[in-house]
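your task:
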Amino acid sequence: MPWLSAKLLQTVTVAVLDVPAETAQERILARGEDHETLEYLGAARAAYLDLARSRGWLVVDATGTPEAIVAQLMDAAASGQPRNALQPVARAGHGAAARGPCDSFPGRASSGRR
């Protein structure tokens, strides 16, 4: 995924909506459509945060309400910074680099929908 993002996302702003793995799992289970293990969600989060740090993507704290998340995105858009100049927010505790967000992560379970 890193090579693909480097090639395709040169002229766009990318925002990673970040939540702890436990929060992501709670939201997934509440929908009742999929099940993802904490191990998979933690690895996916780490991979996306590593990509955000290395590519200069915006990282948005998505633990709040939808309105708060949209407000953060709107503030970033209104900041007047060039698209690729948005700096990721420092996030603690996301762990070591993972292989990347994909179905080969341990514990990946899907309903088959993409």
Q: What stands out?
A: The chain has four helices and two strands. The mean pLDDT is 75. The longest strand covers residues 15-18.
